[in-house]
Amino acid sequence: MPDKQLRVLVADDIASNRTIVGAFLAHLNCTPIFASDGIEAVDLFRQEAPDIVLMDLMMPRLDGFEAIKQIRALGGDQWVPIVILSALSGEGDVVQGLEVGADDYLSKPLSFPVFAARFKALRRLLDMQRRLAGSLAQVRAVANGVIDGIISADESGTILSVNSSATQIFGYTPNEMVGQNLRMLMPSPHREAHDGYLKRYRDSGEKRIIGQILELTGIRKDGSLFPLELGVSDIHLPNRRMFIGVVRDTSEKRRIQQQLAEDAARLQRYHDESEREQELAMTIMERQIRSDWLRDSAVQYAVMPARNFSGDVVLVARSPQGALYAMLADATGHGLAAAVSVLPALGAFYRGAAGNVPLPALVAELNSLLCGLLPRGRFVAAAVLRLEAGSRKGRIWVGGVPDVLRIGDDGRVLQRFFSRQLPLGILPSSQAGIVTDSFSWNEPSQIVLCSDGLTEAENSAGEAFGASGLERTLQSTPRASRVDGLRHALTAHLGRQSAGDDVSVLIIDCAMGGGRNPATPGEGRKP
């Protein structure tokens, strides 16, 4: 790869000298820029920014010594090699030229081999400078791209460099920070104690900040205080010692933490209030339900809420004539909202049982009541049955819950009552076409009602408990403990998975004697 073409400023008041130097530079792949005196040389340096300067000393208007001083001042931090080309070869002239800022000295007349060798050396130095400048620019770009503030300081605490984030965090410009003591970034009393801490660390090596991430307070240019995280590293270089501090403004983090804490407290208040409201609702529901009828020896039941409050309801009542009424209701959704949907039907159910009304009339009354009270989209799936007193006959209505089963002593299905009716609360009774099914029995049997929370309960593999799980469990458990058997089978099926919906089961014995099953406290199967 050919060398980069250098632009060389040649300052000499003699045209022949400029011509000779120009020819030399052409052979070295350089572009000359000619000046005939010191003033012109300074102006061209300012305008053209050459890579190298070749300077004669004896020139009109402004000599080479003064021109070198001015050019060196214009160069700033960027190093531009200045080589004196002069017939003045006395020791004093050479020393003076180097002292005012020149980097090398070549005597006239010029030897091309020496000239070329010196230029090759300068080219190597310039290439090294460019690579170093590129590396430094890359480091600065990386540092400025970091979202955290980076500040370097010497062992006395004087700031050496800052990145863009540090200036944004503290509100200063780089020039306002570089050269100042780190104390400027600290509020009292840390500001006053900082120099003492640095001295103690230098003298004893005692670390209070070095190598740790600390939460401190900073002060901005406008005097405002803010929380920050600070990590400091101690770096030992060959000729000096430096401290590198990484600063992160945690104002937003603190704000978010405070907001989260407030939100958590607010949620806790909402939760506590919801718990109290649900406890109140549960108390009201329990007072509405005649739990004494659920303790009837002909009844087994379980209600298992998906949350802490079940929207499923099981009801049992006896008419004065001895007929047994039962209902399993499963309102839309689950929890308190579902339970509230069922609540209006409780009184109507007990009134119907107390009046010994026929089952179709009771279902029509329940449906009309719920149609008038429930909002659109809310309904109650249910199964309602009535076992006649003094006979082995009954009637049943099923709307929206899984099929109701009549099973024998061995748990096998003897009769299936399909869910063909609409749930309660969807259509007025005059349009709903309410139909009940009659049945009778001549052998010991039970009526099994359940909500879809049982049959649709899925385990972690997505497998539903299903009607098959229900029937299999009924066949494998004794008559008197079938609800407990279903509870255990469901728990085993779910494993660690929670039920997704409220689960309820109601099992009613069909009496063989044709008479009333007495209520026997202590034999109820309350969950």
Helices and strands in order:
Blueprint: E1 6-11, H1 15-27, E2 30-35, H2 38-48, E3 52-55, H3 64-75, E4 82-86, H4 91-99, E5 104-107, H5 112-145, E6 149-154, E7 159-162, H6 164-170, H7 174-177, H8 190-204, E8 213-219, E9 225-236, E10 241-249, H9 251-288, H10 291-294, E11 299-304, E12 312-318, E13 324-331, H11 336-354, H12 359-373, E14 380-387, E15 393-399, E16 404-408, E17 413-417, H13 429-432, E18 437-440, E19 445-450, H14 452-455, H15 466-476, H16 482-494, E20 503-510
Parallel strand pairs: 1-2, 1-3, 3-4, 4-5
Antiparallel strand pairs: 6-7, 6-10, 8-9, 9-10, 11-20, 12-13, 13-14, 14-15, 15-18, 16-17, 16-19, 19-20
Record keyword descriptors for this entry:
20 strands, 24% strand, Rossmann fold, Phosphatase 2c, domain 1, five-stranded antiparallel beta sheet, 3 domains, alpha+beta, 16 helices, Beta-Lactamase, 527 residues, five-stranded parallel beta sheet
Task: Tell me about this structure.
The protein is α+β, with helices and mostly antiparallel strands and 527 residues long. The chain has three domains: 6-142, Response regulator (Rossmann fold), CATH 3.40.50.2300; 146-249, PAS domain (Beta-Lactamase); 289-510, 4-Layer Sandwich (Phosphatase 2c, domain 1), CATH 3.60.40.10. 40% of the residues lie in helices and 24% in strands. The protein contains 16 helices and 20 strands. The strands form four sheets. The protein has a five-stranded parallel β-sheet, with helices on both faces. α9 packs parallel to α11. The chain is rod-shaped, with a radius of gyration of 49 Å. The model is unreliable at 514-527 (pLDDT under 50).
